[in-house]
Structures are given as C-alpha cells and as structure tokens.
Amino acid sequence: MNISFVNLVYLLSAVLFILGIKGLTKPKTAVRGNTLSALAMLIAVAITLFDHHIVSFELIVLGMVLGAAVGALMAVKVQMTAMPQMVALLNGFGGGASFGLAASQYLLTLERTGFGGAPAEIIGVFFITATVLIGALTLSGSLVAFAKLQELISGKPIGFVGMKFLNGALFVAALALIALLCVNPDNQTLFWALAAVAIALGLTLVLPIGGADMPVVISLLNSYSGIAAAAAGFIMGNTVLIVTGSLVGASGIILTRIMCVAMNRSLTNVLFGVMGAGSGPAIDEDEFYAGKVKSAQPEEIAMILETASRVVIVPGFGMAMSQAQHAVRELADVLEGRGCEVEYAIHPVAGRMPGHMNVLLAEAEVPYDKLVEMDRINPTFDQTDVVIVIGANDVVNPMAREDKGSPIYGMPILNVDKAKTVVVIKRSLGSGFAGLPNPLFAKDNTLMVFGDGKKAVIDITASLDLAD
Questions:
Q1: Do 99 and 131 touch, CB atoms closer than 8 A?
Q2: 429-446: pLDDT as tens digits
Q3: Which one of 36, 94, 325, 343 is CB 3.0 to 4.6 Å from 364, fit for a cystine?
C-alpha cells in the first residue's frame, strides 16, 4: 500500500482523536467526541492491518465483530456504579497490549536477525524495554486497582513499613536491566527478568494505596497506558500510535495533577505508591460521637424541606452503592416544583474515579448546569437552608480544615457544615475510606438519617408529596 496514502490516513485518525478529546470537555459534545475517537481507532487499526498484511481480510473482519460484541456487552451489562473498576480494567488492557507488542517485536527480531550494535538498534532496544516496563507495570497495577474496586481484595492499604524502599529498589533494578539489555540485547533472561520486575513493581505501587486515593490511581494508570502506547508507536514506527499515546499520557498526567491538588497529595507520593493514610493515634468512635449525634426520620426531614428556599445535594460513593441517583433526581424535581432552588455540590474526588458523581447524575438526566464545582459552591453554603449529604464522608469531613494532626488535613473539602441545616443520609456512623470519624455527624446543625440511601431519599420524596 502506498506509504503516502497510509500516512494521510494516519493523519486523519490523529485529527479525529484530537477532535474527540476536545468533544469530551463538554457534556453536550461528549457523545460526539466519544464517537469520533472510536472512529479514529477503527480507521487506524484497519489501515495498519491492511498496510502490513498482518492477517487476512477474513480475520480482520472477525476481530472487528468479536471486539464490537465484547464492547457492546460490557456497555450494556456493566452498571454505572461499576464504571471505576471497568476503567481500571481497560487501563490494564491498554498496558497489556503495549507489553505484548513490545515482547513480540523483541522475540521476532531475535528470531529473524538478532540485534546488532548499531546506534539505531540500541535506540530500538531502549524503546522496546521502556514499553515492557511501563506496559507490564500498568497491567499489574490496573489489575490490583480493579480487584480493590471490585472488592475482590481489601480496599485498605496493603503493605508493610518500608515498602517505598522496595518500590525504589525495584525501579532501580528495572533501569539497570534496561541498561544491560541495551548493551546485550540478545539475552532473553534479562528481558524476562525485566518483565517480572515491572509486573512486581506494578503490584507494590498500587497495593499500599487505599480506596480514598483510587481517583488519583486511576488517572495515573490511564496516563501510564498512554505513555506505553506512545513508546509502542516508536517501536512500530506508527505515527498515529505515537500521537494518540502522547495525548492520553499528557491528559492523564494533567488529570492526576488536578486530583492531587484536590486531595492535598504529592505527585511524587503517587508515583512511588506511598499514598496510604497517615499514622496517628487511634480514635474511639463510640466516645467521639457519644451523646452528640441526632437522628431523624424521613418525615421529619420532609417537614424541614417544606420551608427551604435553597437546597444543595452532595452526592458521594454511598449514592453510587445504593444506586440512588434516579431517586435523588426525583427529590430535586419535587423541591423545584415547590419553588425551591436546588443545586448539586461536586467534589472532584467524590467516588472512586474522577467525575464519578457527574457520570451517575448524568445517567439520571440531571441538567449539567446544576452540577457546581467545589470552588464555586463553597462560598454559598452559609446562604443555604438545607444540605443533603448522600453517602459522602471524607469530602465533607471538617477534620481536613480544622485538625492539623489529621491525615487528611489540608485536603480541600465541601464546607457543608456552614449551612443552616445539614442532613446526612448514611447506613451508619462508620468511617470513610480515610478511616477517620467525621465531626460533621456530631454538629448541632446536623441530622442523621440512617439506612439505605435510595430508600431514604424515596421516603423523603413521598413525605413531601403527601404534604402537598
């Protein structure tokens, strides 16, 4: 196939990818952006397979049909509440694909001609080994993230004192193996040792990270998968893979940085897997809350809402677990029908992935202009009659603002405690991912509604309807 034509098609794919990412920046254009990106990938894969005559036309069509079937099945079957673990799994697939490509290129070169000592071949070996390192690390790390989110293993930090030194040792070992392979690329033992070290490093980087930090981990692994794809593009001499991988890698790093700021975390700590909650004296939660918590029934909350003119709803992971997003939308509709102003306060790391709450509320067809970012909503809480917190914990914990000894001190939070009345819907007084009690639950202006989030919201809505 004519090389100029192939490059022209690659350019078209790259442009479509860029337009697709641009479309994803706004809810109104997100579907179109996703479609453009999917079309770009289809064009890039098809032209690559046709150009290199890698497989027959029949196998290409069969692969497209099977891939489309699996993708459609996942899209239909996977609940929105399970989207974080699916994203983690897809990141792993991306890293695994890059790792497989690098390994196959290495073995194919050994089988055909072997590696020489020319500078160009040494550069090629470097990109192969770099892809193996990043791809295998992304694969194993993403699988751990998936297992934590799917609750196949504990979501709490798993590790031991000094694990960061093990991470450093594994990283240094990986760099040393890359250097040795650049000098002696025909040594398969070194190659598979590098793969093993990379897989181990992925495990040890993510295992010590707790559930509270999963949004940052997911965005970082997404960046890794893009970097691995770009490195694989250099191996294959594939322009569109370099461009798209660079786009994903750069956007993932930017998003990771945003998440770090939102959680008062260090990017260095993310990179070396030392993001577990800080240590401190254990707190007896029974003593912490003793005699201070006021519980209420849905009917009582409905009576308070009857006279409210402004209500802010704060969604959290508990809303996702109870799948209460549709019930929340119905409650907001009833309140707005009574002339009440309703907005949704969105913390950037609420849930288990960046934008988790946005995705769930979009599924319930909540207007996007009702979703207000933390920096914009915080100054308005002291003018709010009622704040309804549904399953959120750490992102509304005043310890982050007031307790300098707290592991989450300095983390920006939603200042819901400044509202006239705070209603917290939660199954229990149990701590969030950070493992800390929440002084908000014991404040004078807070009422706790214990139980399933979806049922509680439905009961409040029903009581409001009866009042009409």
A1: yes
A2: 887 766 788 999 999 999
A3: 325
Residues 326 and 227 in one domain: no
pTM of the model: 0.78
Tokens of 277: 């909650």
Do 312 and 451 belong together in one domain?
Answer: yes
Q: Which amino acid is at 34?
A: N
Tokens 């690098």 sit on residue: 102
Q: How far is the C-alpha of 370 from the C-alpha of 319, rounded, in Å? A: 17
Domain of 99, in residue numbers:
83-271
DSSP 295: B
* Whether 277 contacts 210, CB under 8 Å: yes
Q: Do 163 and 291 lie in a common domain?
A: no
SS3 call for 429 = coil
Determine the Cα–Cα distance for residues 86 and 79; give it in Å rounded to an integer.
Answer: 10
Task: Report whether 325 contacts 432 (CB < 8 A).
Answer: no
Among 77, 96, 119, the domain boundary falls at: 77
Q: What is the pLDDT of residues 270-282, one digit of tens each?
A: 666 554 444 445 5
Distance CA 86, CA 47 (A): 28
Domain boundary among 32, 60, 77: 77
Residue 184 falls inside a structural domain: yes
What pLDDT, on a 0 to 100 scale, did the predictor assign at position 277?
Answer: 45
What is the rounded CA–CA span in Å between residue 251 and residue 257? Answer: 10
227 and 91, same structural domain?
yes
Determine which one of 394, 417, 452, 459 is catalytic: 394
